[in-house]
Amino acid sequence: MITVLLREHASNRVRVELGNKAGGYHDEEVEKFLAAEREKAAAPPVSPKPGKPVPSYVAIDGSPAIPDEVGITLAADRVVVGSPGARSILRGAFRLPFLPL
Fold first, then answer.
1. pTM to 2 decimals?
2. How many angstroms separate the CA atoms of 99 and 96, rounded?
3. How far is CA 98 from CA 11, 19, 25, 53, 70, in A?
4. Residue 88 carries which DSSP code?
């Protein structure tokens, strides 16, 4: 879960899942089963659906560069005026490893 805090304000929470645990146990039969399941599974729909201007799944003004290594880069406005209805957009870029098919 990611929550961005700015003094006494908290953003909405977003669930994020990142790859396998380092040093985790690997079972060859499980890997074969998962590979077979990946082949028949269709990609799930993007959620939340793209909006205008956010959420956006392409680079927008102020988006950070994609990291050189596997990982996530986040960026937000340095100063935000705290008034009713104020918004602060958290921008991100990521690089993930390819999953075997």
1. 0.51
2. 9
3. 30, 10, 19, 28, 10
4. -
